[in-house]
Amino acid sequence: MTTKIKTQKQVQIIARITIKKNGIVVYKVRSSNGKDIYQTTFLNGKATGCTCPATKPCYHMTQLQAREDGRIASQQLLNSILNEDLVPHAEDDLASCDTCGRHVKPGFVTCAVCLPY
User: Fold this and answer.
1) Are 42 and 57 in contact (CB under 8 A)?
2) Quick one: what percent of the chain has pLDDT higher than 90?
3) Which residues pair with 15 in a beta bridge?
4) Overall pTM > 0.70
5) How far is Cα 57 from Cα 54, in angstroms, rounded to an integer?
6) Do 47 and 68 contact (CB within 8 A), yes or no?
């Protein structure tokens, strides 16, 4: 008796397209036979459909969902780093002019406007 070992199919991504007007993401993927091209769609980060003939969710949808989840997580991390409140740190380094109260660099007590010369 022979037993078949089932190998996992891997999605071959051709392109990722984002429609900015409505937030839909479309992945163009190559079929497992290497000839056909299918489109897998995402709305709000969730796989909503695929044009392949397989029953849904197909392997395109499940593998691309994991990829999209990772992409969203890394984007959220990047945004949280970039949106960190850096303004208080910059203001901590500034001093104020003794005469008018304008911001001056650390170590200075008078701004360029109030200097007597």
Assistant:
1) no
2) 52
3) 28
4) no
5) 8
6) yes
